[in-house]
Each structure stands twice: as C-alpha cells, then as structure tokens.
Amino acid sequence: MIDGRIYVGFTQNVLKRLSKHNLGKTKSTKGYRPWELIYTEEVETREEARNLEKHYKSGFGKEKLKKILAL
To answer: 42-53 burial by CB neighbour count: b if 16+ within 10 A, else e?
Structure first.
C-alpha cells in the first residue's frame, strides 16, 4: 500500500486474487502495486460477501479497516 489506498473486494480464492493484483493483471489496481493483505473475513454465501464488500467500501467500513492497520 504505497499511497494509503485500501482495496476492498470479495473472492473465493484470496491468495490467487491478491497475486493477480500484484502481477498487474487487474487494470484498476495495476498502478498501485504492491498490494498486501491486511484483513479477510469468511462468510457462507455470495450474498453475505457482497453485503460485507459494500460495508467495507463505505466510510464506516474504511474507518474500521484503518483501525485494523493501526494495530
């Protein structure tokens, strides 16, 4: 995280997705490499994952992630 950006997304394979981002295979994140994994959460359904993604992309969710980073 070079400039303080926090990427939020959901996937079935976290390490594979992180690798794609760091190899520059994702256009939207390519210019901000390297990315590091700071937090994961496992849920049962795609719907739950989508709802969590929306939360963490919100102001409140980003603040929670920033607090995790500060630890």
So the answer is: eeeeeeebeeee
Report CA 48 to chain centroid distance, whole Å. Answer: 15
Domain ranges of the chain: 14-70
Predicted TM-score of the model (pTM): 0.80
Q: Over the chain (71 residues), what is each successive 10-residue block's mean pLDDT?
A: 81 96 94 91 97 96 89 68
Contacts of 49 (CB under 8 A, 6+ apart): 10, 43
Residues 6+ apart with CB under 8 A from 68: 38, 39
Which tokens in the block code for residue 30? 């390519």
Please report the DSSP string for 23-41 in residue order. TT-STTTGGGPPP------
